[in-house]
Amino acid sequence: MNDEIELRARAGKVESTTEQYPDDQKGSWLDDDTHLRSLGKRPILNRSFGLMSIMGLSCSALLSWEGILVTSFAGLLNGGPAGVVWGFLINWFGTISVYTSLGEMASMAPTAGGQYHWVAMMAPDAWSAFLAYTTGWLTTLAWQALAVSVAYITATLLQGIIVLATQTYTPEAWQTVLIMWAVALFSVLANSVTSRVLAKCESLILILHLAGFFGVLIPLVYFAPHSSPSEVFTTFFNEGGWSSQALSFLVGFPGVAGSLLGADCAVHMSEEIQSAALVVPRALFYTIIVNGLLAFAMAIALMFCLGDVTEVLSASETLFYPFLEIFYLSVESTAGACVMAGVILVLSIASTIGVYATASRMMWSFSRDGGLPFSSKLVQVTYVVRADTLKGYGTKVSVKLFGPC
Question: Rounded distance, CA 17 to CA 121, Å?
Fold first, then answer.
């Protein structure tokens, strides 16, 4: 971990480097490569992402309002409608505070390694290497796990839509695994294009992310019968039979918190972002604010349109995700519900592209610093095999190893 120790020694240079970039400038003139060299890293990757394109990648990877539809039912089972709404608010405000701090550190040292580089800079000398190495492993594994999770969600969501459309299809575990592999392969191939093409695609995905929100929210709110405000904001459940309602709320809380995972993807794409010291902090802040608002609005709408809770929760046994049943009961049309769910499926596929891009950069960065086995092989970037492609296949292997059997 010599790079990390060297990086910490250069921390003073990092601060003086960022001070010469006034905040009132657009930042297009920033010498990103010089800044990166001052951090002890050699510039390799092309800088093709701007603010809009990196926000598109961040929003798609975050999968906020789409994610609250998928993950909130763990909180509904243990916590109830009020647990979902208030739990999300607590999570959102806490996440804002975390990413505000990350944004400050990203403005100081915008590297693909992100958290473990910052730990190396700020930790005491005696603990710097150990803590940076531990943080690097945790961050790398977290992104690989997120890649597996998003592929699984995409696969099971597709199966749930098929069940909803046909009523005769019986999902099998081996089918889920094959679909996961297909999703992983598609994401790797999508990341094999040039970063310039990927950046343009992510800008379009940002538009789809925002348009899809209204495409789902409006028919859901308009057609569905509504619960009373007291049922939404003051009703708690303890379906898990825990010893107290407070404990039940805490058990369901991680399900709600899962909708805001992955907002730091802009950090790990830093070495491909123009004017990274300015753009990355702004992307982090804008992403968590905008997506928090969208997810909170969707959570409230979902709880108001919940209907019969028992019927909705039982739908998870056949449809994987109860929100599919809510869509169907709201619009009273199989085709309409499938179209609404199809929007979320498309955005879920887009999310896998962003997550795989980020996971590959994180793996590459940690390999560059010698943190992973076979780092000398993983870190190679040539004109034939690009960094995201090589590490993308590593992420695909993670899906095969850790996907359901």
Answer: 15
Residue 216: how many CB atoms within 10 A of its CB? 24
- Give the integer Cα–Cα distance in Å for 330 and 340: 11
- Return the bridge partners of 163, or none: none
Separation between Cα atoms, residue 313 and residue 300, nearest integer Å: 17
Q: How far apart are CA 266 and CA 358, in angstroms?
A: 8
What integer is the mean pLDDT of 182-186?
A: 92
> Which superfamily does 2-402 belong to?
Amino acid/polyamine transporter I (1.20.1740.10)
Q: Which residues contact 335 (CB under 8 A, 6 or more apart)?
A: none
Instruction: Confirm if 279 and 54 have CB atoms less than 8 A apart.
Output: yes
pLDDT in tens, 232-265: 999 998 888 898 999 999 999 988 888 888 888 9
Query: Is residue 324 left, alpha or beta, with left meaning phi > 0 and alpha meaning psi from -120 to 50?
Result: alpha
Answer whether residue 364 shows pLDDT above 60. yes
Rounded Cα–Cα distance for residues 215 and 253 (Å): 27
- Residue carrying the six token digits 């790990």: 268
Report whether 289 contacts 279 (CB < 8 A).
Answer: no
Which tokens is 291 given?
């997506």
The CB density around residue 209, as the number of other CB atoms within 10 Å, is 25
Among 111, 99, 90, 124, residue whose Cα is nearest residue 38: 111
Question: For 383-397, b where at least 16 C-beta lie within 10 A, e where not — what string?
Answer: eeebbbbbbbbbbbe
Instruction: Determine the Cα–Cα distance for residues 259 and 65; give it in Å rounded to an integer.
Output: 7
C-beta of residue 393 within 8 angstroms of C-beta of residue 188: yes
The span from the CA of 105 to the CA of 357, in Å, is: 21
Measured CA to CA, the distance from residue 396 to residue 148 in angstroms comes to 8
State the DSSP H helix or E strand holding residue 333, giving kind and residue range, or none if neither: none
CA 187/CA 40 separation, integer angstroms: 31
